[in-house]
Specification:
The chain is α/β, with parallel strands linked by helices and 841 residues long. It is built from 34 helices and 24 strands. The protein folds into five domains: 138 residues, 3-Layer(aba) Sandwich (Rossmann fold); 93 residues, 2-Layer Sandwich (Histidine-containing Protein, Chain: A); 117 residues, 3-Layer(bba) Sandwich (Glucose Oxidase, domain 1); 107 residues, PtsI, HPr-binding domain (Enzyme I, Chain A, domain 2, Orthogonal Bundle), CATH 1.10.274; 305 residues, Phosphoenolpyruvate-binding domains (TIM Barrel), CATH 3.20.20. The longest helix has 30 residues. The structure holds phosphoenolpyruvate and magnesium ion. Keywords: Cytoplasm, Kinase, Magnesium, Metal-binding, Phosphotransferase system, Sugar transport, Transferase, Transport.
């Protein structure tokens, strides 16, 4: 890969450019900085030796591009070339391109594998997008250069016909920085020449592998693009780009339209009425509780032993990573994979080499204590986000601050103040971090009212997922001085809040809340009917749950049972494993809420994305998803496993409980687990403790090996439940938590669907029932296919149940079977989606 060197008088400026560039290509970067000089009183300047060292550190035969700010930076760079031998000097190019825009364009081109000439052309053309947006003529050179490259490529591809597709951009902010970089990186993976034009804005075609040119298209949400590909792998290239669009570039798919994406401080319109940002719909009327996490005070001081200080910072970061891992696992269970990815981003932040290096340098260069060094670098990062033009990226400041505070808290030894409410309340705060919000209990926190925040902040996204009404950005002067217990009403749809509302407002809001609740109830009322297709096929609709409160929501939403109880929640966020008694109480309580409805309890599926610090698994494995997780860990920890099985068996007395084993890959694992279950049964029998002797045992089919030997496994168990979240990642060899391969982890890919079909066939042949409990079951585009493939049960998050039942009732089995058969014959997940959409129109 072409190396990039940034030469600047200011270290901060250079590091800022480096950080920005790294963000564009998600760290896939070969970039060094040579900036500032070793003079505490006058640190601005450039040093030829530093430039030489920076060049040497990124040098390869692919070449190096050097970008400089001004004046002596050029001289230092020219002098640095003198230190190189002749052959090396030929490969190093000093470039007059603008520092910031040039560096970003160059890094994107380099990351896409383009050669040094193309990288230079990209850097030189870097002002074109800006100039075009501002209506200024510029970048002629770049246009000329890219045209000359294009014409040589035209000849290479002359023998192939051009293929073209048209796509609508659905990202909320269009092809903003990151999606544009993804587009370019994807286009550059193929030999075919990719061109793209914005049909909506009636532009010319531009090169699809140029970040500048793609940026010039000014693509916004809803714009239609034409993408043309010419070359040997044109079809594959178009399919990959189509998949990128279909995955929404890995961005949040929420349809929620924020009324305002900017932070606001708003004054009241009438007495007692406050206007804010409508962040999460719903009405809440309750007394308030103010929440203020303890402030962290930092003192800056000189340290004698920078190495010890650096170690101290690393230990705090490591502990913060463990805390976030736990939060990530809990969030995966409570709010789903997509939203939990917020915390995955927090982890990436703590691994950011640029940030860590900046902190380390501060400690060493200035003999600074860890707290002061850390706070300074976090503030720098937060400020650089604040200055971005892209408002969505600006809002990531909250996440930066959240992670930064977590490490600081650990460094200064502050314990986190947990929020304990004695009665249901509306939470009033300045701001809530994503971590704070993820920990809220919707049955206690009826509403959220903050003075800062925005509708697209991660806290707001989590509030919506949890179903907590929220109004953000209200007048701090008013709400932060209220006494705890003051009555407040808020309407998360209109973004209004009232302090001690007048009776007429209260009546109005109570009526609105009632209407809202009635509408929900109506949907729930039909959700209590069975899901039967128009031609009479019944499909059971169950719920996936991860807590006792979930089961109530599930039943209220029409769940006919629980298809997956993720028992990990009992094991997380604590110092030791839960006792048999604790587990028994929880399982029994959930079964009681379900009455005679089935409850499928999945045994501990820890490891992979759900590590457990006190069991020392998951965290240190090179490939945790391929490691010691699920049944593998349980079989190796018989005492822990037996404790859980005893609790499940005891709860099964008088309740419709089934056991499900996760991550099964082999027949011997099932036999070993059943053997342990049999031993536990003997113990209970001997002790005279009642349990269901005939308790059903099933497995999750989520490992391709299990699909391959499904007919053997079917002979061992009473049921299958297909876990497409894991099955997709293992079939596609793509880590389900890695955003870079997110487009591959797609349950609608025909490869995954064929695995689902094989599993169903094996179950049907053996005469056992088969369900599906991965996220795919809740995808409206998957319903017809899954029903058509012959599943007996679909298990989804409780909120998705009413809509899923409606969708099933609208289908006919014959149509569903035809769609399923055709889906299996498609080439890609995109084609499958198109097929389903077509069948609906
Ligand atoms: C799955 O893998 O599809 C599944 C439901 O289990 P989990 O998401 O808990 O791994
Ligand atoms: Mg799984």
């Amino acid at each position: 890969m072409v190396g990039i060197v940034i030469v600047s008088h200011s270290k901060q400026l250079a590091l800022g450019v480096q950080e920005l560039a790294a963000q564009m290509v998600q760290g896939n970067i070969r970039l060094a900085v040579a900036a500032g000089i070793e003079d505490d009183d006058n640190p601005l300047g450039t040093d030829p030796i530093q430039v030489y060292e920076a060049i040497a550190s990124v040098f390869s035969d692919d070449g190096v591009l050097v970008l400089m700010d001004l004046g002596s930076a050029l001289m230092s760079a020219e002098m640095a070339l003198e230190f190189l031998d002749e052959a090396q000097r030929q490969q190093v190019h000093l470039c007059e391109a603008p520092l910031v825009e040039g560096a970003i364009a160059a890094v994107v081109a380099a990351a896409a594998g383009r050669n040094i000439q193309q990288v230079i052309a990209e850097a030189r053309g870097a002002l074109t997008a800006k100039a075009s947006q501002l209506g200024v003529v510029s970048g002629q050179l770049a246009v000329v250069e890219t045209q000359s490259i294009a014409s040589s490529e035209d000849q290479t591809h002359a023998e192939y016909p051009t293929k073209e597709i048209q796509l609508i951009v659905s990202n909320r902010l269009g092809l903003h920085a990151r999606p544009a970089a993804q587009f370019v990186a994807t286009a550059a993976r193929f030999q075919a020449q990719i061109r793209v034009r914005n049909i909506t804005r009636n532009t010319e075609f531009v090169r699809g592998d140029s970040i500048n040119q793609v940026a010039i298209l000014g693509v916004r949400q809803g714009h239609e693009l034409a993408i043309a590909a010419t070359g040997v792998d044109a079809d594959e290239a178009l399919a990959a780009l189509q998949a990128l669009f279909a995955s929404n570039f890995g961005e949040d798919r929420t349809n929620f339209e924020p009324p305002s994406a900017v932070r606001q401080e708003i004054t009241p319109e009438t007495d007692g009425e406050l206007s804010g940002i409508a962040a999460s719909p719903g009405v809440a009327i309750a007394p308030i509780v103010r929440y203020q996490p303890p402030a962290i005070t930092i003192t800056e001081y000189h340290v004698e032993d920078p190495e010890a200080e650096w170690q101290r910072l690393q230990t705090a970061i490591h502990t913060a990573q463990q805390e976030i891992q736990t939060l990530f696992s809990q969030a995966t269970i409570q709010i789903g994979d997509a939203e939990a990815a917020i915390f995955d981003a927090h982890l990436l932040f703590l691994e950011d080499p640029v940030l860590l290096e900046a902190a380390r340098q501060r400690i060493w260069d200035f003999y600074l204590n860890a707290e002061a060094a850390w706070q300074a670098v976090v503030n720098e990062v937060a400020n650089s986000y604040r200055t971005l033009e892209d408002s969505y990226l600006q809002e990531r400041v909250d996440d930066v601050v959240d992670v930064g505070q977590r490490v600081l808290r650990l460094l200064v030894g502050n314990t986190h103040s947990e929020l304990h409410l004695s009665q249901p309340a509306i939470l009033v705060a300045t701001d809530l971090t994503p971590s704070d919000t993820a920990g809220l209990d919707p049955s206690q926190v009826l509403g959220i009212c903050t003075t800062l925040g925005s509708a697209t902040s991660h806290s707001a996204i989590i509030a919506r997922t949890l179903g907590i009404p929220a109004v953000l950005g209200v007048d701090a002067e008013v709400v932060l001085h209220l006494e705890d217990g003051t009555l407040m009403a808020l309407d998360g749809e209109s973004g209004k809040a009232w302090v001690e509302p007048e009776p007429d407002i209260l009546n109005l809001l109570a009526a609105k809340r009632e209407a809202w609740q009635n509408a929900q109830q109506q949907a729930r009322a039909t959700a209590h009917q069975l899901a039967i297709t128009r031609d009479g096929r019944q499909v059971s609709v169950f719920a996936n749950i991860g807590s006792i409160s979930d089961v109530q929501v599930a039943v209220a939403n029409g769940a006919e049972g629980v298809g997956l109880l993720r028992t990990e929640f009992l094991y997380l966020d604590r110092a030791t494993a839960p006792t048999e008694e604790e587990q028994f109480t929880v399982y029994q309580a959930i079964a009681q809420v379900l009455e005679r409805r089935p409850l499928i309890i999945r045994t501990l599926d820890i490891g992979g994305d759900k590590p457990l610090p006190y069991l020392k698994i998951g965290v240190r494995e090179a490939n945790p998803f391929l490691g010691w997780r699920g049944i593998r860990f349980c079989l190796d920890s018989p005492e822990l496993f037996k404790t859980q099985l005893r609790a499940i068996l005891r709860a099964s007395a008088g309740h419709n409980i089934k056991v499900m084993l996760p991550m099964i890959a082999t027949v011997s694992e099932v036999r070993a687990a059943k053997q342990i279950l049999a031993e536990v049964k003997v113990q209970l029998r001997q002790a005279g403790i009642p349990f269901n002797e005939a308790i059903a045992v099933g497995i999750m089919v989520e490992v391709p090996a299990a699909v391959a030997v499904a007919e053997r496994l079917a002979a061992e168990v009473d049921f299958f439940s297909i876990g497409t979240n894991d099955l997709s990642q293992y079939v596609m060899a793509s880590d389900r938590t890695n955003p870079r391969v997110a487009t591959l982890v797609d349950g609608l890919h025909p490869a995954v669907l064929r695995m689902v079909q094989q599993t169903i066939q094996a179950a049907q042949t053996a005469g056992i029932w088969v369900g599906l409990c991965g996220e795919l079951a809740a995808d409206p585009l998957a319903t017809a296919i899954l029903v058509g493939l012959g599943l007996n049960e679909l298990s989804v998050n409780p909120q998705a149940i009413p809509m899923l039942k409606v969708a099933i009732a609208q289908l006919s089995l014959a149509e569903a079977e035809a769609i399923a058969a055709s889906a299996l014959q498609q080439d890609s997940a995109t084609d499958v989606r198109a097929l389903v959409q077509q069948s609906r129109s």
